[in-house]
Design goal:
373 residues, Elongation Factor Tu (Ef-tu), domain 3, conserved putative lor/sdh protein from methanococcus maripaludis s2 fold, 21 strands, 6-stranded antiparallel barrel
């Protein structure tokens, strides 16, 4: 009986040991298999360090270097308009002629009186030299002659005022009067503006005042010419700061030979500041935006708990800086040359496995030009 028990016990032990050996072998084999979740397909880009020109952005308004609304110096009826709307004129060119028929007649009469006064003064001089004319009478004749000459000069000046001339080189706007119209003194006739060069007036915060200098480069864009950049330089900085807004007024001068820019246009202004240290730049699609902090995912080789190597991502919190088109400058934990995920960041977590496929990358241009613009 005891013998049978021992045989059964030995058989049981052998079975248990065999099962344990099989299980050990299975566990050992399973330990060689990676327990990392399936890899996520992503695109990557190599982080690069770029020395960007930092810029200060503002909005402003374009203004002419010289601009006036030409008005009449004298009243009367318009007999000629000597320029068309939109015409380029030179300083001194006649623009509008007002009727001078009455003044011309008065001028002729005054000139006759002046000639007679001139003859009288010549005779009076002879009589005064012969002492046949009193000095007081000579003075009266001389004064009358001078008065006649003054009347002639006054009428000539009045006639001259009725021929309106361009005060400077520029371009005429849309005229505001017509031939045959009676106008009073001071009546607006037409705008005249000098558009080359042209001013861009804008404001910047007082804290940026130390960054501004005369001659500093600026770039201006306007809605009318999207994608075209107009270059200029700062030509004036106001001597005082606005006490209500704490902004300082700045004026830039832009070349405008083709007169594409017009006074009154809304303008976006970028002021080029001195070059700073090179910064690591990445596409904006590489940023995982979050309320608690923005981050990126850096691709690098990792090991799972079993010690097997795989391609994974390390989440790194970063501080965002300036943006240029599709690119954004970042600081904190990322170095130039590292591979950074640019698409699929919202599906990732720290140490997640990835599969890189760069056959189609997101746009990464500092000055993108979409096809539909």
């Amino acid at each position: 009986m005891l013998k049978k028990f021992l045989i059964a016990l030995v058989g049981f032990v052998i079975v248990v040991l065999a099962l344990a050996g099989v299980k050990y072998a299975q566990i050992k084999e399973m330990s060689k298999i990676s327990h990392v979740p399936p890899a996520t397909a992503v695109t990557t880009i190599e982080a690069s360090a770029v020395a960007w020109h930092p810029v200060l952005q503002s909005i402003g308004t374009l203004a002419p270097v010289e601009g006036v609304t030409i008005s009449a110096d004298a009243e009367g009826t318009i007999v000629k308009i000597l320029v068309e709307s939109g015409t380029a004129v030179k300083a001194g060119d006649p623009l509008v002629e007002i009727d001078t028929s009455v003044e011309s007649a008065q001028l002729n009469a005054s000139q006759v009186r002046a000639e007679l006064a001139k003859i009288n003064i010549e005779r009076a001089k002879e009589l005064l030299e012969n002492k046949t004319l009193a000095k007081s009478e000579y003075d009266t004749i001389e004064a009358t002659a001078k008065q006649s000459l003054a009347d002639v000069a006054a009428l000539k000046a009045q006639i001259d005022k009725k021929l309106v001339r361009a005060p400077f080189d520029g371009r005429i706007g849309i005229r505001l009067v017509n031939v045959g119209q009676y106008i009073s003194k001071g009546r607006a006739l037409m705008p005249l503006q000098k558009l080359d060069p042209i001013f861009a007036n804008f404001n910047v915060p007082q804290r940026q005042l130390s960054s501004l200098t005369i001659g500093q480069k600026v770039s201006v864009t306007v809605d009318a010419y999207r994608g075209k950049v107009f270059e200029g330089v700062i030509s004036a900085i106001n001597s005082e700061v606005d006490s209500s807004s704490r902004n300082v007024s700045v004026q830039a001068t832009l070349a405008n030979a083709q007169e594409l820019l017009r006074a009154g246009m809304f303008a976006e202004v970028e002021i080029e500041l001195p070059v700073g240290e090179p910064k690591v730049v990445l596409p904006a699609t590489a940023i995982a935006y979050a309320p608690y902090g923005n981050s990126i995912f850096i691709v690098e080789k990792m090991k799972d708990p079993a010690g097997l190597e795989y391609l994974g991502v390390r989440q790194q919190v970063v501080k965002l800086g300036d943006t240029r088109g599709d690119l954004v400058a970042v600081e904190g934990g990322v170095k130039a040359g590292e591979q950074v995920v640019t698409a699929g960041v919202f599906k990732l977590r720290n140490s997640a496995p990835v599969q890189v496929n760069n056959s189609s990358r997101p746009s990464a241009e500092s000055a993108p030009k979409p096809e539909n613009t």
